[in-house]
Amino acid sequence: IWSPWAVFYFFFASDKRLRLDFGTPGVGKTTLGKELASKSGLKYINVGDLAREEQLYDGYDEEYDCPILDEDRVVDELDNQMREGGVIVDYHGCDFFPERWFHIVFVLRTDTNVLYERLETR
């Protein structure tokens, strides 16, 4: 039986494939993405952090009290890096990313009781 790290190295690290981790907040996307990047040498990109740093917003949602992500600007900002390869992308959805960017997509999940406890501490 192969370990998860062996599978990762075999399929992704060796040929600079691209991967996307997504799921609801609190399931471990950031923890997993950063760990895989540190062990493999791939680049880790958190889309939320990128949007904040580059102000990739298209207004503000008063009802939800949060900025509205400008998805087109995010795609434009990431396009060159994604063409080069070797990137792990962390975001809670995947519907606006071009399919050509990714070789594999992982949906992370966790038990709702565990998720509740994690989110309660944030």
TrEMBL record:
A Pfam short name: AAA_18
GO molecular function: AMP kinase activity; ATP binding; ATP hydrolysis activity
Taxonomy of the source species: Eukaryota, Metazoa, Chordata, Craniata, Vertebrata
Protein name, entry field: Adenylate kinase 6
GO BP, one annotated term: rRNA processing
The organism's place on the tree of life at top rank: Eukaryota
Keywords: ATP-binding, Kinase, Nucleotide-binding, Ribosome biogenesis, rRNA processing, Transferase
